[in-house]
Amino acid sequence: MNTFGVKLRLTTFGESHGEGIGGVIDGLPSGIKIDLEFIQNELNKRKPGSKFGTSRKESDTIEILSGVFDGFSTGTPIGLLIKNENQKSKDYDNIKDLFRPGHADFTYMQKFGIRDYRGGGRSSARESAIRVAGGALAQIFLNEFNISVESGIYGIGKNYGDLMKADFEFAKKSEIFSLFPNLEAEFKKEILNARNSHDSVGGSVLTIIRNPPVGLGEVLYDKFDARIGAAMMGINAVKAVEIGLGVNSSKTKGSFNNDEINKKGFISNNSGGILGGITNGDDVVIKTHFKPTPSIFLPQNTIDKFGNEVRCELRGRHDPCVAVRGSVVATAMARLIVADMMLLNASSKLENLKKIYI
Ligand SMILES: Cc1cc2nc3c(=O)[nH]c(=O)nc-3n(C[C@H](O)[C@H](O)[C@H](O)COP(=O)(O)O)c2cc1C
């Protein structure tokens, strides 16, 4: 499936080394002022080119092809396009017939019987730029309701920060979106060490949805946490997602884990803002874990498409730690989910419908 969402739907197309990547956002209400500069700024955060990411140079300039008139959304499909500018398919000639360990080469070949070896083809995270553009459009809608979404890095390799001290203002200024001023240098060192030793390193991202309305999430098979889980797991290289206390909640007692309530609201937020699959109005807290980049320059054992055992010796340009740019994609996916769930929730009560139709 290349389409995502129920009421607000994003369809994407394109490959890493094709002509370009693009998408269609359908279901965004009319009358929203579209801020192209904001969309471009969001794309610039994910853009390749820094020494902590791949050296592939792409301007990632977004073009809006349809669905916007006089600066406002028209309620019709919004067409998005980014042209690829810096494909170097020759770099991939030597791995044309073999499967990179840890990448999707093997499974795409088994499933489709066609090997687009140029930069990973459709399995490449190049596609995620369009998710970021779609997420930015969703955020412009969320701004109308004072809802925001932020992400940052809270762990690289074996270095993890204290989530209670996460500093999102610092993350905005940090080259690697570090949530901790005192750990930024350590995080950078981990990434550069991985790069210099021709290896890669994993990382973890904290995403917070601030000021979500109560009631988002469709019982029973489209729970808010289930949708968040699927959205984040759908990002390349994501291997685990946690909500609130997450994995650690299984190590606690109910007396600790339960969020007690008083007149002002929930006293703690171990639930991560979701109960019974429905948002409770507290911040939604999401942790997303990325594996190390599969493409590394150390020689590894693999097979070719004829079944011969061969050594895999890679060239090309790769992120040493995909969690860094992946954090921007995590923000985008959360934005798309919140906007979609808001549109879905609008018809959950008769009184809501009466406000429109009577
Ligand atoms: C922003 C981002 C950038 C990525 N860049 C690379 C890369 O440069 N090289 C690479 O081998 N994998 C990269 N990946 C990861 C692969 O796309 C991913 O691991 C691969 O498609 C296999 O899928 P899986 O890890 O989800 O099983 C990137 C992922 C993200 C989110």
From TrEMBL:
<keyword id="KW-0028">Amino-acid biosynthesis</keyword>
<comment type="pathway">
    <text>Metabolic intermediate biosynthesis; chorismate biosynthesis; chorismate from D-erythrose 4-phosphate and phosphoenolpyruvate: step 7/7.</text>
</comment>
<dbReference type="InterPro" id="IPR035904">
    <property type="entry name" value="Chorismate_synth_AroC_sf"/>
</dbReference>
<dbReference type="InterPro" id="IPR000453">
    <property type="entry name" value="Chorismate_synth"/>
</dbReference>
<protein>
    <recommendedName>
        <fullName>Chorismate synthase</fullName>
        <ecNumber>4.2.3.5</ecNumber>
    </recommendedName>
</protein>
<keyword id="KW-0057">Aromatic amino acid biosynthesis</keyword>
<feature type="binding site">
    <location>
        <begin position="236"/>
        <end position="237"/>
    </location>
    <ligand>
        <name>FMN</name>
    </ligand>
</feature>
<keyword id="KW-0521">NADP</keyword>
<comment type="subunit">
    <text>Homotetramer.</text>
</comment>
<feature type="binding site">
    <location>
        <begin position="291"/>
        <end position="295"/>
    </location>
    <ligand>
        <name>FMN</name>
    </ligand>
</feature>
<dbReference type="InterPro" id="IPR020541">
    <property type="entry name" value="Chorismate_synthase_CS"/>
</dbReference>
<keyword id="KW-0274">FAD</keyword>
<dbReference type="GO" id="GO:0009423">
    <property type="term" value="P:chorismate biosynthetic process"/>
</dbReference>
<keyword id="KW-0285">Flavoprotein</keyword>
<comment type="similarity">
    <text>Belongs to the chorismate synthase family.</text>
</comment>
<dbReference type="GO" id="GO:0005829">
    <property type="term" value="C:cytosol"/>
</dbReference>
<dbReference type="Pfam" id="PF01264">
    <property type="entry name" value="Chorismate_synt"/>
</dbReference>
<feature type="binding site">
    <location>
        <begin position="122"/>
        <end position="124"/>
    </location>
    <ligand>
        <name>FMN</name>
    </ligand>
</feature>
<dbReference type="GO" id="GO:0009073">
    <property type="term" value="P:aromatic amino acid family biosynthetic process"/>
</dbReference>
<feature type="binding site">
    <location>
        <position position="317"/>
    </location>
    <ligand>
        <name>FMN</name>
    </ligand>
</feature>
<dbReference type="GO" id="GO:0008652">
    <property type="term" value="P:amino acid biosynthetic process"/>
</dbReference>
<feature type="binding site">
    <location>
        <position position="46"/>
    </location>
    <ligand>
        <name>NADP(+)</name>
    </ligand>
</feature>
<dbReference type="GO" id="GO:0010181">
    <property type="term" value="F:FMN binding"/>
</dbReference>
<keyword id="KW-0456">Lyase</keyword>
<keyword id="KW-0288">FMN</keyword>
<feature type="binding site">
    <location>
        <position position="51"/>
    </location>
    <ligand>
        <name>NADP(+)</name>
    </ligand>
</feature>
<feature type="binding site">
    <location>
        <position position="276"/>
    </location>
    <ligand>
        <name>FMN</name>
    </ligand>
</feature>
<comment type="function">
    <text>This reaction introduces a second double bond into the aromatic ring system.</text>
</comment>
<dbReference type="GO" id="GO:0004107">
    <property type="term" value="F:chorismate synthase activity"/>
</dbReference>
